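User: Can you help me understand a structure? I only have the sequence.
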Amino acid sequence: MTDQKYDFDLFVIGAGSGGVRSGRMAAQLGKRVGVAEESLPGGTCVVRGCVPKKFLVYGADYGASLEEAKGYGWSFGETSFDWPTLRDAIQKEVSRLSGIYSTILEKNGATVFRERAEFVDNHTVRLTKSGKLITAETILIAVGGRPWAPEIKGIEHAIVSDDSFTLDKLPERVLIIGGGYIACEFAGIYAGLGVKTVQAYRGGRLLNGFDAEVRDKVALVQENNGIDLKFNISPTEIKETQGGYIVTFDDGSKIGTDLVFMATGRKPHTSGLGLENAGVEVEDGGAVKVDKFSKTTADNIYAVGDVTNRMNLTPVAIREGMAFIETRYKDNPTAYDHEQIASAVFTRPPVGTVGLTEAQARKKHGDAVTVYSTKFRPMKNILSGDPQGVFMKLITKGDEETVIGVHLVGDHSGELIQILGICVKAGLTKADFDATCAVHPTISEEIVTLKPREINKTTVVS
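Assistant: Let's start by predicting it. Here is the structure, written out as tokens:
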């Protein structure tokens, strides 16, 4: 498949998780690989997403643990939190990880260009800093997504998630606008670091698209963390004042704050990429159109990861990249299965979910659905005085009660859902769960002792 008339066999635009995996694997196959990255190698996850955010969650959890330890007999002198210490330690680790991503590519023989690449035609890109033209037989788009914020008056005064990791100082008050996973996670982080936190959302329930009961439990989680929730309001103006900012909402209400954090969504980073020059079509919202093999509307151009807006998760981008390599370079057409993928939301405590929500299950399977659920206060929280509880929900279908959905809210849910995802993917039944002996005393033992919900035939609207 190698064609020497091109500079590279494969040129990857974007050195995030999907792009790096694809580039490395292609180089290991002996392909001539070039990779362009306009920011730091590692992409959203490593540089401005999953990794630094999880460190912030840990930081917030440590603060809560100090208070909870008192119930177990521990006492402390005066304690304090230093934001620059945590911020700088996280950025040091981000730089280390980014360097590893770059090294992985280069050690495998790929050429890394530290600048933005834009399409000239379907085989040619221009590096915007140097102006250099590069040709490639195959091009992979892996530029990911970027935060999106509404164009309201004064929006220049707000920050987005990319900005939150390098703040000069923590504010005393923060207003987080949004109800998705990014908004919920950062609200929990700020509140845990001692910031007076308000979370405002245009809808009536947090985490749109999640199971309805999970959404309700997360609202309780946020309130237990001291977050002031405001529903059914949208911002119309941000005004700078001597003491901070005043945000006006469409119901006429106003909220004063020291920091406005827009967590109103993300969009594929395709603007200005020159896709029209290469015959690559996009959907409304900018997502690159691809088939099940990640091929775009141009035969030699593929796309993986968040830029396709299929399922915006780092491990999914990696799997899509691996499937691309199988398809393009191993004569093994491979379409990655996007069904039954487990995921977590790192609220405090976190959410874990895999499979169908109850509403989706009832729409698809009707009265063949049975729901098992429980809620309880975990043992650890009894002595500590922590009000947070645990919620578990298992959804089955048919007479065999095949498990088609699991939803958790509580300590360690992000860890538990990985194992439970295997069970759902394998098509295990409720009987398989019941036949598994519990590990006592643990939170996880409850998942193999669940009883049917008292009323399980009522449609739950997500």
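Now, to help you interpret it: The chain has a mean pLDDT of 96. The chain has three domains: 8-147+267-329, 155-264, 343-448. Let me know which part you'd like to focus on.
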